[in-house]
Design brief:
Blueprint: H1 5-10, H2 13-23, H3 31-44, H4 52-62, H5 64-76, H6 80-89, H7 95-105
Helix pairs in contact: 4-5
Length: 107
């Protein structure tokens, strides 16, 4: 259902985003198509059309809460590859060696 001028004037941002996505048929945000749809939304909310990288960079620079939301979303996923990649990047503490030594000395 398309909003009237009065409804647009009185709408919350979330309602306007939903209306914009409905009108532009921005439903599925997967893959390259999803990136292009995000680009359309970022342009609609005022970010330049110069290059997508620049739009995303400027958006994230202006909105650190979006970065936190992305990080929170990543944490909520159960993706084995991501977990394995992170496990290979994290340096274990020296306490792991001490725990192994303590376990061996108890025997």
């Amino acid at each position: 259902m398309t909003m009237t001028c009065k409804e647009i004037d009185n709408a919350e941002l979330s309602e306007l985003v939903e209306e914009f996505c409905d009108q532009k048929k921005l439903y599925c945000f997967e893959g390259n198509s999803g990136i292009n749809k995000l680009k359309k939304l970022l342009h609609a909310i005022g970010y330049s059309k110069d290059s997508f990288d620049c739009e995303v960079y400027n958006f994230l620079q202006d909105n650190p809460g979006a970065i936190h939301a992305i990080i929170d979303w990543i944490k909520e996923q159960n993706i084995t590859d991501w977990k394995e990649y992170l496990q290979s990047e994290i340096v274990p503490s020296d306490d792991d060696d001490n725990l192994a030594d303590d376990a061996n000395s108890d025997s």
